[in-house]
């Protein structure tokens, strides 16, 4: 990339100084350095924002992702996530989350709900 010195009387532009500074920083620091400053930045952000902030940025990120990816993308990341989870957890983990899910569902639904899903399940093989 050519220096952008022509219009600044031999001085570097702000863009050029920033680029050179970034290159020097990346040459002088390793992965752990960047992980540490990322961790500190995340802590500072969490101290300055509430649950609503994170819900909003999550919603915006989800919308942007859905606009840029198709069904196959979601199938692929779902598959990868399921594989990673299954490699990191045992049978007891799945029994526990199944139990918790069943309890939460039973607290939120009545007998009619279970009759309806049972009827739909019984008809799914027709």
TrEMBL record:
Biased composition (Basic and acidic residues): 12-74, 86-119
InterPro entries: Stress-induced_KGG_rpt, Stress/Virulence-Domain
Stretches for region Disordered: 1-126
Protein's name in the database: Glucose starvation-inducible protein GsiB
Organism (species): Cytobacillus gottheilii
Lineage, opening ranks: Bacteria, Bacillati, Bacillota, Bacilli, Bacillales
């Amino acid at each position: 990339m050519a220096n952008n010195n022509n219009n600044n009387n031999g001085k570097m532009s702000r863009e050029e100084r920033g680029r050179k500074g970034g290159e020097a920083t990346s040459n002088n620091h390793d992965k752990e350095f960047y992980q540490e400053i990322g961790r500190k930045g995340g802590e500072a952000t969490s101290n300055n924002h509430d649950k609503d902030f994170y819900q909003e940025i999550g919603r915006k990120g989800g919308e942007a992702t859905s606009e840029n990816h198709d069904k196959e993308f979601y199938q692929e990341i779902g598959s990868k996530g399921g594989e990673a989870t299954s490699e990191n957890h045992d049978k007891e983990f799945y029994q526990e989350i199944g139990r918790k899910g069943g309890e939460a569902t039973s607290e939120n639904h009545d007998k009619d709900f279970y009759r309806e899903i049972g009827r739909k399940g019984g008809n799914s093989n027709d």
